Amino acid sequence: MLPKIILAFTLVAIGIGYFPKFRMNRTTIALVGATFLIITGGISYKSALKSINLDTLVLLFSMMIVNAHFVISGFSELITHKIIKYANTPKKLLFIIIFSSGLLSAILLNDTIVIMFTPITISILISLKRNPIPYLLGLGMAANIGSAITPVGNPQNMLIASYSGLKFLDFVIPLFIVSIISLFILYFTLLLFFRKEFTEREIIHQYIPNFKIYKPVLLKFILTTIVMFILFLFRYPVSYSALIAASIFLFTRRIKPEKIFQKIDWSLLVLFSSLFVITSSVETTGISKTIYLLYNKYMFTNMYLFSFSIAILSNIVSNVPAVMLFAPFIKSIGNSHEYWITAAMASTFAGNLTILGSIANIIVLEIALKKGIKITFMQFFKIGIVVTIITLLVGIAWLDLIF
């Protein structure tokens, strides 16, 4: 019983972002919560170590190194300057952020996109003196939506591709159109909820950042990034490809290693490691199985109940464990193409319901918090619940039509 209580408190505190009367953030809450789960027997120490996905940590670490060179080369400031120059209205700026984040997340992991784009977006918003909240919500939620398009867009889609044997186009053909529609739904929802921010017709460029391009570093960044993308296209593991790129960057005579490692967000790596343990403890404590048994008899009645069942569980135990839990049951009803694609859509779109629904959400909020920008659980949820329900309904209707 005690591990379940600790787990509940930990999940709530991570969602809120702090623990009342304690100097704790999401990272320390997650680490302490994971440790107490081990101490109280919620998960064994050996199982906790095994639950930490090194592949994800290598990807995060490698992309932080790539992102550091992205900044040092001056490329990020160049992009910032170009976007500021082109996006002459708040609506156009929001549109660019949402669709660039969404479409790129279909090619790369959504977590990778938000790691790279959140600092750039914040830089742009600070330069233009805009309210950062709607744009950052758009960035994170669009990354979730767009990642549904392909089997390499997010970890749960990779699992589904592995379990089902579905190929690249098996995802793209049914999910591309509904994901694009969902990006528009997100765009108009943010315009509706933040009407005051988007009433201006033009952005007054009160400040255009001065920037300096370091051409040798920039050239190396461009060439190495191209190599990384080629490796992605040839289906090398994403983390392995990113690690190769990071190693090429670190093989240098121009930049001191200390300058790079100062830009590594070590607390984010600790947060991820702790979340893996917490997520696994949801299964070891029996909570996930209990939840599944509560609505097992109803979930396969129709696609709406099936989708919302996965969506709810994805926000309790996270989308990857939810897919892992439901996989044996989907196989037991005939390894249905329709159920697998619906699971991919529902578990991914469900990531926009709460902060805890997707790791991409946490990355955006944590990077923003370090820049002094705080997005509360309720600020996220009031947008997320609208976007999630509408996109899920549209997604189910579309898949029901084409299958």
Termini gap: 44 Å
- Number of helical stretches of at least 4 residues: 20
Backbone CA Rg: 21 Å
Q: Residue share in helices? A: over 70%
Q: Would you tell me the overall average pLDDT?
A: 84
Instruction: Report the portion of residues in β strands.
Output: under 5%
> Helices and strands, in N-to-C order?
HHHHHHHHHHHHHHHHHHHH
| Protein structure class | mainly alpha
Q: The biggest beta sheet, please?
A: none
Unreliable sequence segments:
none
Query: How many domains, in number, for the residues?
Result: 1
Q: How many beta-strand runs?
A: 0
What is the overall shape? globular
What is this structure's SSE topology?
Blueprint: H1 2-16, H2 26-39, H3 45-51, H4 54-72, H5 75-86, H6 90-107, H7 110-128, H8 132-146, H9 155-164, H10 168-193, H11 215-233, H12 238-250, H13 257-261, H14 266-284, H15 287-299, H16 303-317, H17 319-332, H18 337-349, H19 359-370, H20 377-402
Walkthrough of the structure:
There is one protein chain. This protein is an all-alpha fold. The protein has one domain (5-402). Helix content is 75%, strand content 0%. Helix 4 (54-72) runs parallel beside helix 7 (110-128) and helix 4 packs across helix 12. The mean pLDDT is 84. InterPro entries: Arsenical_pump_ArsB, Cit_transptr-like_dom. One of its GO terms (molecular function) is arsenite transmembrane transporter activity. Residues 23-350 form the Citrate transporter-like domain.
